Amino acid sequence: MQFSSRLPIAVHILLAIVEFDGKEKTTSTFLAGSVNVNPVIIRNTLGQLKAAGLVTVKAGEGGSSLAKAPKDITLIDVFDAVEKEEALFHFHENPNPECPVGKNVHAVLDNKLFAIQDAMREKMKSITLQDLIDDMNKILVQ
Amino acid sequence: MQFSSRLPIAVHILLAIVEFDGKEKTTSTFLAGSVNVNPVIIRNTLGQLKAAGLVTVKAGEGGSSLAKAPKDITLIDVFDAVEKEEALFHFHENPNPECPVGKNVHAVLDNKLFAIQDAMREKMKSITLQDLIDDMNKILVQ
DNA sequence: TTTGTTGTAATTAATTTGGTTACAACTGCA
DNA sequence: TGCAGTTGTAACCAAATTAATTACAACAAA
Predict the structure, then answer these.
(1) Which runs of consecutive H residues, i.e. helices, occur in B1-128?
(2) In this structure, is residue B44 part of a structural domain?
(3) Chosen from A5, A92, A122 to mutate, greatest number of chain B CBs within 10 A
(4) pLDDT at A1
(5) Fewer CB atoms inside 10 A, N or C side of chain A?
């Protein structure tokens, strides 16, 4: 089981928007060339990022920009923008209520599974787009 | 995106093996009745748990038991037993190496994604089967 | 030898992902 | 106004994954 490549692609897009700000018009076709996926994937992802208030997109004219400072965009913002909102683990639907285990497995396990999901989300919350930009700039000047 | 129900089902199975120890023969059919899935799912899952050294299964005779103390089985043991070993995030395959962003997005993002995965795994490591048994017993005596 | 069980392969349906084509709507410019 | 480039979105397709299910050989105990 894996998360889709949506978060990595969305982060790639955001990094490219920052990197090429003022240098290139970041159209879906241009971004598709950097990410190396179909432009429609870029347009759909940009649409999700726009709906989440992370970017603005110039319809007709073309190009996109950040709607917030990179330090105010965390990976959880990006994750929630592009991934469906749902529990991390799919619980089996119908444990037998006649069985002492089946009757209580939800009560016992749900909060543990939620804690696991929350640990992941907290880590994502601690990483900002600015962190990634700083890391990239360190590499670029080398 | 979700994990499959394999971890919840595996935990359910382990809890049932403990709960019915000495009371019922925990065959795949019996366990299937508690989890409410097809017995083949139980047999496959038990096979994975057995391969990971968490349970023993009596071929022919029927029934299964824990191979380790509940305090020595953590959710990460169960998770690794039943989920394929792979990176949590699927990275898009071919970022453009001619692009300063495409060339470096892996170097920038990989360790962050790994840190997120690791946060999740560390939380799973901190939860033992014994914790779940204790919680279940608290409910059962009420 | 009979019965019940495990282990495993094969098949199926449903869902998700990513790729792709197509095209209407929109913007800026000549 | 009309053209060129772009966004937004729908539709379709192939591949992969999940879970359910049937089937059956191998095995153990009575």
Answers:
(1) 6-19, 28-35, 39-51, 75-82, 100-125
(2) yes
(3) A92
(4) 59
(5) C
CB of B33 within 8 Å of any CB in chain A? yes
- CATH number of the structural domain spanning residue B39: 1.10.10.10
Write out residues whose CB is closer than 7 A to strand C.
A 4-6, 37-38, 40-41, 58-61, 84; B 1, 25, 27-29, 39-40, 43-44, 46-47, 50, 57-64, 90
Q: What's the sign of the alpha-carbon dihedral A46, A49, A54, A57? A: positive
Whether residue B98 is contained in a domain is answered as: yes
Mean pLDDT by 10 residues, chain B (142 residues): 84 96 93 93 95 90 92 96 82 84 91 92 97 93 73
**pTM, two decimal places:** 0.90
Domain hosting residue B99, numbered range:
6-141
Instruction: Compute the nearest-CA separation of B60 from chain A (Å).
Output: 25
In a domain, A74, yes or no: yes
What are phi and psi for residue A3, nearest 5 degrees?
A: -70, 150
What total number of domains does chain B contain?
1
pLDDT tens digits along A76-94: 999 999 988 777 888 886 8
pLDDT tens across A34-66, in order? 999 999 999 999 999 999 999 999 877 888 999
Please, what sign has the CA dihedral across residues B2, A80, A60, A69? negative
Contact residues on chain B for A96, CB-CB shorter than 8 A = 33-36
Q: Is residue A14 part of a domain?
A: yes
